[in-house]
Amino acid sequence: MLNNIRISQTINEIILNVNIISDINEIIEELEMKLPKLRDFYQSSTIPIRVTGRLFTESEIKKIKSIINSEIKVEIKFDEASDLLGLHAIKKTFEADTDISETKFVQNSLRSGQREEYPGSIVICGDVNAGAEIVAGGNIIILGALRGLAHAGANGNTMAIISANYIDVTQIRIANLVREVEERVDRCPICKIQKNEIIVT
Questions:
Q1: What is the pLDDT of residues 103-148, one digit of tens each?
Q2: d(C-alpha 163, C-alpha 145), whole Å
């Protein structure tokens, strides 16, 4: 029995709450199974559908919208990364392989006040300067210096890593853990979780 999607209703919307660690193919299979019941409901309603619980890539969003709209002509909303990534949003942690993940490449440095967030991994082709933020559901790789805030595995994935040419910050975050960094770390360090604490190797 598939149990990747919980459907609920508020006054203003139908909510599809998706299990954060579910495989996208299982989610789509279950969605297609549950669509007939949703279609019956929408014979007398036009309220929008909101998909929440996890972040989706652009290609996954297009696929899900296409499947729903093939049966029901309705507005479909997806939660933004800022709603679902970060310490405030982690309700439980999990382990998911990050060796292969969808990756966003940022071809410049981040200045103070700039923020990059993505449900997959992020590669910064430059520096992350003090006052800048980078938040990823997967890994964070910085080809230059990390001087700003970096939060990898920001959806709760404890297998995510952070790596940079060198790290010169007071704090790094992976999943629901925070580590204070007392001094600059050189030689392309890799930060990861081991035995429920962030280590730097």
A1: 999 999 999 999 898 888 999 999 999 999 999 989 999 999 999 9
A2: 10
